[in-house]
Amino acid sequence: MxxxxxxxxxxxxxxxxxxxxxxxxxxxxxxxxxxxxxQNVTDAFLAGFAPKAIIFSGGPDSVTRxxxxxxxxxxxxxxxxxxxxxxxxxxxxxxxxGRVESGHGTAEFGRAYVTPKGSLNILDGWFTEGDEQVWMxxxxxxxxxxxxxxxxxxxxxxPYAITADPSRNFFAVQFHPEVHHTPNGARLFxxxxxxxxxxxxxxxxxxxxxxxxxxxxxxxxKRVICGLSGGVDxxxxxxxxxxAIGDQLTCVFVDHGLxxxxxxxxxxxxxxDNYNMALIHADEQELFLSELEGMxxxxxxxxxxxxxxxxxxxxxxxxxEGAEFLAxxxxxxxxxxxxxxxxxxxxxxxxxxxxxGLPKKMGLKLVEPLRELFKDEVRALGRELGLPxxxxxxxxxxxxxxxxxxxxxxxxxxxxILRQADAVYIDQIRKHGLYDEIWQAFVAILPVxxxxxxxxxxxxxxxxxxRAVTSVDGMTxxxxxxxxxxLGETATRIINEVKGINRVTYDITSKPPGTIEWE
Length: 519
What we know:
Blueprint: E1 8-13, H1 19-28, E2 32-37, H2 43-49, E3 53-56, E4 82-85, H3 87-95, E5 99-101, E6 108-116, E7 132-138, E8 141-144, E9 150-155, E10 158-165, E11 170-173, H4 185-196, H5 204-219, E12 223-227, H6 232-245, E13 249-255, H7 263-275, E14 278-283, H8 285-292, H9 298-317, E15 323-327, H10 332-337, H11 358-362, E16 365-367, H12 375-384, H13 389-392, H14 412-431, E17 440-454, E18 457-470, E19 478-479, H15 484-497, E20 501-506
Parallel strand pairs: 1-2, 1-3, 3-4, 4-11, 12-13, 12-15, 13-14, 15-16, 18-20
Antiparallel strand pairs: 5-8, 6-7, 6-9, 9-10, 10-11, 17-18, 18-19
Helix pairs in contact: 5-6, 5-12, 6-12, 8-9, 14-15
């Protein structure tokens, strides 16, 4: 869905690892923005996008290197405010007549403090208690500012930490205001948006109306099928599309035998009873489990599950007369990450189960009403649509389900043990009031059996690992700091209540270096 009805800000990406954080900060201020790699931002693109303001992101390169990224010259002639961040500052200085140098002992990495040098409108609310804490991450430095610019802030290793040409509304900072370690960074963005004239019209109520109109225009009188997993993304997408086109939508819920305890009944009941949707409950447990039985390689598991999903959707799509569209819960981070900054192939950490490969095989066109949203915005839209909190606040659950929480060989017996252990663990988290503090929590059953003693007898059963992480968007994560009392109580319950487990461990690996899921 192309967004044209809101004030729009363009973020030109030079490859920073934290560019997404810029977009998140702006969305939190009710401003619509998009991230586009610098090489895609042509003069024609700029004219068509018509941004109200532009931000240049940071990046890993050096403007002193021949062939390094540059901003489009047309951006400087559009008459709109521009904010350059880190590499973005250096690009501005270099292209507008200043000088950037490497080395000379002026690199800064980590916390720094900026001292003010005069007043500037985007710094309203800064320096109220002295120097301002910021986060630096740069090797090169500006050694001479461009004509028309002045210095408004310095740090020990960045004499041009804040520069600006107020007559043109060009601003440039050497630090990263988008990261948590620049505590007052949100205020700087707020001031920049205010001087650019943004009205803050990006709300979920407005998005809902626009999305419904766009779905109706795209679909017309044709039918749409939607793969409904019961997760937040597919649930919100299904309810939004149903509001737009009613009984032209058919949802397909595939029960592959890899769901959590009671999950199939919960999802089907909610959607049939509360939304009166056309819903196919495809019980395909035997199909999936028979093919996965004994399978141990994680990539083989994922690809097998993805292939079987395609087969199931194909079967049901053929039975729905007039089905020309497939609905997906694609989110904006997926869109961003699908565009390689360098233009080269990315390393595959793990295949993602997604029905994105479905349309080519089935000849369907995509409906992706959430592709402009971050995860927290999807939850906000879900509330706007009236979905119950029990669904909006659900922890993410992977498409391959319990298959990737069962490292090593998959068997039905191990899946049953895993389901029971996971149910006890989540029950413990809810009883202690911790569910909403945690991004994702689950149990993994380990491919190892250990000796134990229960009731004066020897046991030889499975070990399991508890996993719980905190995160904002799943891109990075840290383990949740449970108390030892909680872990001891939970381990005791699992061992006492779940036949087949005699040892419980807690995974305290962050992401990176680990992933959230075990496979």
